[in-house]
Amino acid sequence: MLRQQLQNLQENHRQMMGEELSGLSVIDLQNLESQLEVSLRGVRVRKDEILIDEIQELNRKGTLIHQENMDLYKKVNLIRQENMELYKKVYGNRYANGVRRSSLASNGLSINEDPHAPVHLQLSQPQQQNYETSGTSELGLQLH
After folding, report:
1. Average of pLDDT values for 108-132?
2. What one-character DSSP code corresponds to residue 128?
3. 84 to 28, 41, 73, 102: CA distances (angstroms)
4. With b meaning 16 or more CB within 10 Å and e meaning fewer, what string describes 112-124?
5. How many CB atoms lie within 10 A of CB 96?
6. What is the pTM of this model?
7. For residue range 42-55, what is the model confidence (pLDDT) as tens digits?
8. Please, how many CA atoms are within 13 Å of residue 109, restricted to the half-sphere of its CB?
């Protein structure tokens, strides 16, 4: 009895795979087609569920990345404001208000108007100059 069930299942499987269909009547073929359509609908529903879950997860990740991007943008703006305050302290208000930007650039400092432009900070060694007579030294900080 188990062997007969196994044979029936194997024959059913082969027919579902499109094999050994020659002995089937038109009604049997229509029933097989209906079974396949029901199975295919189930596969498509499951595939759609998986895709919807993946889309929702990607949207969630996109929202998190967007929020992180906004936080970083705020930090960059805060750093720019701090830099502007430092410019004011070091060079006075004449540089901070944009009147003499060209001399800032000539001093190795630049102010970008584009808020989305990348900020590159780089420390450099002080340039060797002869300060022996005055007894002073300078710290070299270069902003790009």
Report:
1. 53
2. -
3. 83, 63, 16, 15
4. eeeeeeeeeeeee
5. 19
6. 0.49
7. 999 999 999 999 99
8. 19
